[in-house]
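Per your request, structure below.
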């Protein structure tokens, strides 16, 4: 059962809309492949209800379920574009400016070898 936090109870509107859109697209992909919820659930090793919550775009659904559905429908290649630093200039600039993974203190590990 998901923890009771703000993202699960009341996600930001943009997050909620994106999840609902993803759920709708996953349902469309399942129906286009003529697969039942029971068949998909059995393939992923989850219950039918988990598939229904993913297709409803519920924020509490595990990300592994969403990725598993994309994989099952042959859409996992599209995940490669998600959060790819090479495609995000802001991330690339931040990575270039970053010197250590964590702030170091005396006696702590650092990147000097």
């Amino acid at each position: 059962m998901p923890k009771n936090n703000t993202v699960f109870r009341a996600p930001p509107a943009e997050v909620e809309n994106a999840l609902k859109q993803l759920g709708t697209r996953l349902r469309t992909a399942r129906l286009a492949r003529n697969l039942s919820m029971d068949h998909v659930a059995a393939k992923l090793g989850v219950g039918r209800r988990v598939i229904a919550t993913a297709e409803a775009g519920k924020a509490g659904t595990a990300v592994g379920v969403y990725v598993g559905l994309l994989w099952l429908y042959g859409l996992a290649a599209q995940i490669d574009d998600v959060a790819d630093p090479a495609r995000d200039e802001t991330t690339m600039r931040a990575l270039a400016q970053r010197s250590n993974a964590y702030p170091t203190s005396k006696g702590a590990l650092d990147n000097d070898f």
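The longest helix spans residues 13-32.

Regards,
D.
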